[in-house]
Amino acid sequence: MALAYPENRTREEEEKQELEAVLDAGILKKAPNLQHFLKFVAEMYFAGSAGEVKEYSIAINALNRPENFDPQSDTIVRVTAHALRKKLEQYYASEGAEHPIHIRIPTGKYVLQFEHKHPSPLPSLIQPEIVPAPQPQRWNWRRTDIWALPILAAVLLTLVGTYIFRQHSMGAVDRLKYLVLGSSASPGSAGASGGPDQTMRIRFGSNAHPYTDAGGLLWATDQYCKGGAAFSHPGHLIQGSDDPEIFVEGREGQFQCRIPAAPGIYQLLLLFADTAGDKEAARQVDFSINNAVPVSLDVVDEAGGNDTVVGKVSAGIHPMSDGTIHLDFTSDGSFVNAVELTATASDAGNPLRMLAGPAVVHDNQGNAWHPDRFFQGGRRTFHPDNLPAGANSRLFEWERYGHFRYLIPVVAGKEYRVRLYFSEGWFGKSNGGPGGIGSRVFDVYCNGTTLLKDFDILRAENDGAAVITIEGVKPTAHGMLDLDFSPVKNYPLINAIEVEPEG
User: Fold this and answer.
1) Homologous superfamily of 178-344 in CATH?
2) Among 257, 256, 235, 259, CA closest to 247
């Protein structure tokens, strides 16, 4: 039922009425913490102090936590915010769907937003004069009108010919994006130079609509494969991705894919997560690219368990003579969830740049940094205040902290340059928190080799940031960089990771 606001109400009065409607609706009646959270952030919003809402103030004023509350060890605010967002989504997907105002709490923030659903005015300062539309006229065929038929036929043939010419003149990748994605680039994405995204993303097993992920990137549907069968295992919590929807569906068995690609060099990233409950050595995935020697993969063994994202990267791939890249799965136990095909400048493959946050960010050189994935463990938190000086401060807005590791897929046999981006957002006087140098100390390992020992961010910071570069990092024989962050004193953290092929 739509909520009707009395006439002549101010915007603030309407927003307060919507807040009362949510509080009275019953979705929060058995969750006092959610009620207290919503009321507190609403009070700050109406008082004009939304920018002062912090994790600490919510914990103390809304959730009854003591003054020595430590968000590093107590996640009550983040957990409550997540639960409240879900409740609001449920409310506005059901009984509140037709309300003219919707209440939101954006991911990663604690500031209340009121979305007004009134129709937007025309983007003009002067409203155009409304002229009644002419009534359609019935076509009265007369003998003298017959001459128009050849002209109409010629126009139609011209339009059809133009369309056919355009389709044949477009490259295979452009045709794919034009027909499948409806545009030349995924929304909200950009390539290495800041231009259109050069990655084609395909989600297997789903014959529904294209999928937009948490970072705003578009995934096309499964339509280039024959054989095998689609599967779906809904309801799984997936480690290593913000988008479980990509990994609870897929294609399995023996099947063949022919992915259209324009002439050039490509990097292929296959994405897996075993959601079937298999044990180690119980299921083997065999696949080959462009008829090369098959590769064998035990997804559960590689990931260290079920429901965990694993990637396999191949670089230096060229389309075959038929204008496609051949991807063949040859064992009965084979499966795949998704694939990313990216144009590259060389056979070495592309750099990987990822943030601890959930959005795509571009640095001052136009490079796109995507949400982190391939992670196991840890939690995210948001530090928009006291960011480091410099052009790329947004790389440090988010952090992953706690006990965590990354299983980053790279090309086996190559060496890599790894850059780790750190900024201390909690300890130290400049952050308004306790402690200082020596408050957070941790080690970083890669495939068992020590990269950083007794690392202290505050000791290493320069203008609020510490960027550590490690050269000559070697992957495992299976093409994996296993980055492990191990605590010495308090939790480790990371803001961003960059992995570049050397040579």
Assistant:
1) Galactose-binding lectin (2.60.120.430)
2) 235
